[in-house]
Design a protein that fits this description.
Elements lengths: L3 H15 L4 E6 L12 H5 L4 E7 L2 E6 L3 E6 L5 E4 L8 E7 L4 E5 L6 E6 L7 H4 L12 H8 L6 H5 L10 H11 L12 H20 L40 E5 L2 E5 L6
Antiparallel strand pairs: 1-6, 2-3, 3-4, 4-8, 5-7, 6-7, 9-10
Amino acid sequence: MPELPEVETTVRGLARYLEGAVLKRVEPRREGLRRPFPADLVQVMTGARVTGMGRRAKYGLIDTDRGQTLVFHLGMSGRWRIEPEELGAHDHLVLETESGHTLALCDPRRFGSVDLVETARLGEWPQFAAMGPEPLGDELTAAHLKAALAGRSAAIKLMLLDQRIVAGLGNIYVCEALFRAGIAPGKAAGKVSGPALARLVPEIRAVIAEAIEAGGSTLRDYAQPDGQLGYFSKRFDVYDREGQPCSQCGAPIMRFAQGGRSTWHCSKCQK
């Protein structure tokens, strides 16, 4: 699944073609993805000017001069294709700008989504209303985590995947950040010390920032809008490295199931 760095990379790629552009054509090529496309999508977006691009957690945002924001989620396998030579069976939404650029939302597994939300009320949208702070924002602090995790017996890794605690963190980057901070993923969240949380916050920021700089992590279907692959996967310390030597101590990386997902860690370096 594309995670926060992949969505951020996608938004930055789209911005080069969409920011300030007028949408000449908006063409849904099926009824929807995980849920139907908004009934007024074509009416609202055709002729609209894109006034800004952004991201909230794992959602991309396309603001318009009509006070409406197109909110997209890439699901498991979605990506935007820029200037496709021809449209394929999995290109489900097509945008064409007055300047002649064509962008197609491709989603083979159709777990993504497209919504229209009033821009001024984005924070009240149900998917956003209960979300915690952004990993790269100033509101993510050790104090925030300590308060949010106080008394929680659930594993720290599972708590970091809870969007109400931190918005947008996914399995890859939580595994990597916990390794860098030396925190065992199975440790009860409420028992993680203040100094450990103080180490964790900058490691979360660093791993996310490095992944964005590298264009994300190419796993299965993901690629940037221009077709380029993300290369942060070349830098993984623990994720998907079961049995390989730890980069810090040489012990084998271990994997176990946690909350329906795989968790990778070093039992010697993470306590």
